[in-house]
Design goal:
Distance between the termini: 16 Å
Structural class: alpha+beta
Order of helices and strands: HEHEEHE
Number of domains: 1
Number of helices: 3
Radius of gyration: 13 Å
Number of strands: 4
Helix content: 25-40%
Strand order of the largest sheet: 2-3-1-4
């Protein structure tokens, strides 16, 4: 799997998941449509970091082996209160779709 030069980045809360896909794709010399952004579910109880389980929030994510894929239209501003760590970081993971 190709890796980013830095394992972190700092960006504005107005960025969308789509913006992050475009950035990662550019860094990896890929197309944005090939990149997906995920977050890791809480491994202790399998829940999100907050108690908010509204249908709207659930509709924005798809499950995949302990990871939740974020929809491209989601903004970091929306995701931060729900997913930020105790130290204020929003840890996301990326994946390049398998070809074929």
């Amino acid at each position: 799997m190709p890796k980013l030069e830095k394992s972190y980045l700092s960006c504005q809360p107005t960025f969308s998941v789509s913006h992050l896909c475009q950035f990662v794709a550019l860094q990896l010399s890929r197309q944005a449509a090939e990149v997906e952004i995920y977050f890791r579910k809480n491994s202790i109880n399998g829940s999100l970091k907050t108690e908010d389980t509204s249908a709207d929030n659930e509709a924005k994510m798809e499950r995949l082996d302990g990871l939740e894929r974020l929809k491209e239209e989601s903004s970091l501003f929306e995701l931060y209160p729900m997913l930020a760590s105790g130290v204020g970081d929003l840890e996301l993971l990326y994946s390049v779709k398998a070809q074929g």
